[in-house]
Amino acid sequence: MTAHTETPGSVTTVYQVSGMSCGHCEGSVSGEISGIAGVTSVKAVASTGEVTVISTAPLDEEAVRAAVDEAGFELAGQA
Description:
Number of strands: 4
Helix content: 25-40%
Distance between the termini: 19 Å
Order of helices and strands: EHEEHE
Strand content: 25-35%
Shape: globular
Structural class: alpha+beta
Largest sheet: 4 strands, antiparallel
Radius of gyration: 11 Å
Strand order of the largest sheet: 2-3-1-4
């Protein structure tokens, strides 16, 4: 979980992810999404299922879905 401040021109998107239940889950999801080009910050919260992503441009939802799937969870969509 990386904490960065949002910079001008960046895009913040909140996704809903099903199945996260602990810090390890948060780390897995954050790690996979961090690998997407343009992502500058990811913060996953297992208790709410929310994953906040800051990127330099809007992300392709299919790329985010693939990253979440790779981590072993399901992207429910944008929150």
